[in-house]
Structures are given as structure tokens and as C-alpha cells.
Known about the structure:
Elements: H1 16-27, H2 30-35, H3 40-47, H4 51-59, H5 62-80, H6 87-90, H7 103-123, H8 133-142, H9 150-166
Helix pairs in contact: 1-3, 7-9
Amino acid sequence: IDLKGMTFILTTNAGAEFWDILKVIQMKDVDAIKRTGKTRLQLLELLGFSEATYAEFEKLSPAAQREKIGEIYKDYLGKRYGERFLPEILSRLDVVPFDYLTPEMLDKVIRKFINQYRSKILEKKKVISFVSEEVYEELIKSYNRKYGVRPLARLTQRKLTRALRGLGENLDRN
Length: 174
């Protein structure tokens, strides 16, 4: 197989703690730093900075900061997950960081999953006219920033299937 000219898009939550630490540093929130149990300098060092190099970093343009963070993130992944991310692979990656879901985005994602599942049920001639507030709240609470939204799709299906079974519906028969 000739892969010349191919572009692969990889997603990972590996190194999510890197972005958490970076956010705490960028917020300059003393309480948030204290909650980590580390000093500001210790957090900076975890990211590969010293006080001086971080001060220089802050002077960079936003575009230059994004580029620098991508390089630092690759180094971080190499040190932390070296056995999984070989240098030959890391050197070929461009890093595009994504932020965590806001409560509003999480609400939209959960409603999307519910509506997708509702459509699937309607295709099977089953009827679902509501999702209880309890199920919805449980889905909101189950969101884990570390793992993103992928597990929510499966959890939504599982929760709604259980709720419908409680109403006497068994979706697995069809």
C-alpha cells in the first residue's frame, strides 16, 4: 500500500493532563494551582517550562504560542508515553488541541444522542415520547472530561434501553 500523500487524523486523550495543567497556569488562579497540590514552578516544569521560558512564551503571538505548545506537547507525550508514541511517529504529527465541552455543548451532545436513539426506535415502530429528567441528569453527571463524549453515546443507549424496558419495551427482540 502506497501511503505517500495520505493524511491521517488521530485523536487521543493521552496527555489530557497536559492541557489541564496548561489551563491552570494560564488562568493564573492561585486557588486552582493550590488544588493541584503542586507549586506554580512544579507545574511549569511538568510542562517543560521554567519561569523564564514561560515568561518568554507569554510574549509570543497567539499563532507562535500554538506552534510552541504543539512542540512542547509532543515532547511531553514522548516523555510520558514514549513506549506508545515512538519518536518517528511524534515527529510527523501536527497537534491541534481541542478544549473540553462547556455545559451548553454537553447539553447539545446528549440531546443529539437521545434524538439519534429516538430515531432508531421509531424506525423499529417503537414509540418513545419522553426522556425522564432523571435519565437526562444522570447523563449530564456521567460526563468525564478525561474521556470526552465518546462514552456518552453508549451510555445514552444503555440508559434509554433500561428506561424503556421498565415501561415494558424490549428493544433487543427486534
